[in-house]
Task: structure prediction
Amino acid sequence: MRRAALFLLLSAIAGCKLTETTLSPGERTIVVQSVLSLRHRDQFAVLEYSFNGDTAGRVKGGNRIPPAKPQLPIPGALVTITHEGTGACDGKVDTLLEVPPVGGAPSGVYAGVPCALAPGRRAKLKIVTADGRAVTAETVVPGIEGRTVSSGGRFARFQLDTLPLWRERDTLRIAFSANNGHGVEVEVRRAERHSDLALDIFNDSVGIAIPGTLVNPFDSAGEIIFRPGRYYLITAVLTDSNYFDFMRSISDPITGRGFLNHINGGIGVFGSVDVEQYMIRVVGDRHDPREGLYRITERGSNPNINLTLNLYLTDDTRFGPEPFSGFVTGVGQPVIVNRVPQTAIVNVSGDGSFGAAPGVAALNHDAFVYSFDVVAPQFRRYTLSGVRAAKDTFPVSLVITTQGGSTVLRSTLLGRQTSSPAPSNQAPLVPNARADSEASQAP
Amino acid sequence: MHGAWFAGAVALAVTLSIGRVSPLYSQQLRELNGQVLATSDSSPVAGALVEALGSAARSLSDRTGRFSIPRPDPESLRITIRALGFRTDTLAVPQGRDSLTVFLVRAAVQLAPVEVEAGPNVARTRFEELAQLSTVTLSAPELRRVPTILEPDVLRAIQLLPGTVARNDFSTGYNVRGGESDQNLVQLDGITVFNPSHLGGLFSTFDPDAVGKADFVTGGFPARYSGRLSSVLDIVIRSGDSTRVRGAGQLSLLSSKLLLEGPLPGSGTFLVSARRTYLDAVVSAFTKEVLPYYFTDLLAKVAVPTGRLGSVALTGYWGRDALNLNLVDSTELTERVDLKWNWGNHLLGAAWTLPLGAGELLTRAAASGFSTTLGLFPGLARYDNTALLFNAGSSLSLSPGNGHALQVGVAGERYRMHEQIATAAFDQVLLDNRYRTTVWSAFLDEQWSVSRRFLLRPGMRLEHVPQARFVGFSPRVAAKLFLSRDAAVTASAGRYYQPVHSVWDPELPITVYEFWISSDRDVPVARSDHLVLGLESWIRRDVQVTVEGYRKTFDRLVTPNRAQDLSRQGDEFILANGNAWGFDVLLRRHAGTVRGWVAYSFTRTRRTSEGISYPAAHDRRHTVNVVVQAPGPFRSSLAVRWGYGSPLPYTGFIGQWDHRRYNATDHVFDDSSEEPVAGPRNGARYPYYSRLDAGLRWSVQKRRVTWEPYFQVVNAYNRRNVFLYFFDYGNSPPTRTGVSQLPLLPTFGLDLRF
Result:
């Protein structure tokens, strides 16, 4: 906060920009970034040089490492992890091997399957680069011993258990009892799309509470964390002190200080975490008559496709002018796997928008497009579109495509809205209990 | 080590002074001691000329109104007392009486500012009567005429005095003789002010029209001052006019202010000053932009004479800076999110001055507070810092004669500091540090005119901080040996303790305000030892030349710990030690049509923390400030200020790195931000600093109103002084781009007096 105050002031009174001056290249610092995860067998370390103004050796890098690589990878280093503590791994030295070069350029990523990590044990990292520079660091592995994860009056019973969260009423609470934990980090991501990070927050105690109405304070647009009609994957991370310091500190752009470095001979992180994951199914108040339950089926008495949509209007305008999200459950188009037809059980959330639909020329608040992905037994993207009718059935166009975009089915289904909010907007027609009951199983 | 040289210095000074006492002391004559007070509010009248009729004996009263003149013994005596703004009085002093209190009636005439300035020369009086080094007094007219950015400002003016380093145009913090910015005690009528600044220092904290004078002590301060290591800024708010209601105002595009003063019904005076910026409203009215900032403050003083029981004065101040920015508008689904940042000082104090023959008992009680809140509302996250000080104390000033002036006092201070980071949204209190610190103190300050040529000022201070289990004994001594009537060698040594600290990073270029914590079992009491040697000389009675060399040590300084564990109290700081030495030169002309000063400072200051020694961020080797006030063109008053500062240190960058974000869900790194790799701490230096400011002010009297339009230019030659650098090591070749401090900035406005 103190630092935030300064930056606010600086931006308020910033003077004129002065002439740019060319400098001599600075020093290259070894940057090591490695976080050991108790829940993963494979561990890795990213070795790279800092940027010093000398672009020699720079390669095209990427942000998602692995499989991408850093821009100034350090090749040919010897990377070892020595285990300390009681147990089978005590004294064992594991070597992380350099991931083979891709396209002729070194990867800078060193990976392997070291001896199983265990809470309370110490792991020591030693790196010797090809030119003889040495970097060392160590971490004590944290472990979750007990947890209390609750929302909507329910407690999670197992990993990936699905909890209800009524946006306007409920708070997600996560608390750990820990062996050597220093802090908690919580990542909130769309269950169907992990790249969609809604919130990443940490706290230097072993518990945190996230209210359903939370607006992301770190997002200038004030993005809502939880949107009804969606499943979210909650990754709760118990961190050691190294990784916690790595998260919470930065080298500030004015003094260059501030980053809490625990690497000897370099900069970066060698930390460790324990991870647990849960699902939450977010519902909320409904006010618009277009919200509610829809039944979408194939025509006929024995339809293959039989879906129930539970829609909520949202403010996620990435999906259109009048966006909505919704859970979809039921049975989808059967998929042939090894020449055997298999039923596609659908229980996911998807996104769409009212206001437009293929073949609808003018703005129509009942026209809609909605899509969702079914990943098992094979990936299929379902796209539904049509023009909703409030008190009657209406045709729904369905297009199913593969991951590569090839169309595997075009069909017209029959839709009907089976419930909608009360006109007074005071209470939704679909009670929370019913909405929860539809979340019997997460995707 | 520090203790050894300090003890040696004190011992040397005491030995030298004692060795000279006996023969010189015997030369003293019988004296008449007294005090000159105003009838309206019993406030002391400084600079009153007291003359014994029929003899050459004469004396000027000091800042407490006291005077001392030789008298024939045992004859009766008639004296006249003259003071500017008061009716001259003549009194007969009975035979055998050696002390008296004189009350003067204010003259019901309005005096032009220039006449006021022609009054007594406080610096010369101090030179002749006090062993008090490193002190500069700025009068209200001098403060008003120093060209500044928007309006006169005490804090900006003292940054132009010797021994002071101002790191840039934006910061209101200042460093005195190698000290940190939290080591400066700022007092308003004796009441501590925690953070005397408005945003960016563009506006003064205290209405300069309400300021009577400001004493700035940069070292070796007397035993009555406590609580800070490096300097004292003692601002006196003047009492209101006792003859009629007067006012002063200012109108500009940015702000307006109004000052009213006058007599109270019955007896006593009042003075009230209120200000508010309205640039926010101006911007909204004429543009589509929003300036979400304003400040407002209120300053008041009431002085009531209580006859033979002396006088009572109440001083109050309330200020509030507010920056409210709407970050997210409300929607059907969400509440609005606002960034709110506000801070302010608030203080209230009472002082009762009771004349006791030739002495005086001063009793004070005050409460002073500072609070700030920075947060995202409603309920997302907020940072709060409050600092409260309740204090009470009494000091007895005695003039027992024979050249002695003694002051003894006791005081109790109760600090309550609180720092909290909380988020209601997450139901978390991340930081909740509370500090409760009591400081009991007693002091003795003796001003001894050992002879006409030698002044000695021994003193001591005892401080007890129970929560820190601390007992500190602070010996202080100052001496002055006159080489001639107009030249003297001076020396002082002293030990100083500081029980409150700021956890603001001193290497950040701006001090918006300090973040206060106070000593307890975890937070130590900081210490500094001062040794000052100087030479003061006067050319005629109006030109002062002072040269002072100093050495200071700093022990147990508190600097913020970035690795602090927020969940526990006691690790929020890292200790640092340091030292500073240098010398200051002041050439100042106090009277005449052309007046002003040239100040030069040479400083070396270093810090040692966590085993690393480095130059302090304010380690500026050479500082020069020239301030000239003279008649200008078109019947104006001209004020010019030129400043030079040699390069200041900063931490240069040698590269940058990708601080990656770990994705615990997928066990990969999936994002990154570029951050600098720092070189040696404060191992590089900015270019030198230089700035020329000039201002013209006119004064026109019309219909009982004095109109004072003014025009000022800040940074007249538009030098691009570097504020800070940004580096880019991501490309070849690497580059460095600077951001400048204030560009050429003309301002104008209008002051009114009625």
In short: Residues 2-13 of chain A form the longest helix (12 residues). Residues 1-14, 424-443 of chain A have pLDDT under 50 and may be disordered.
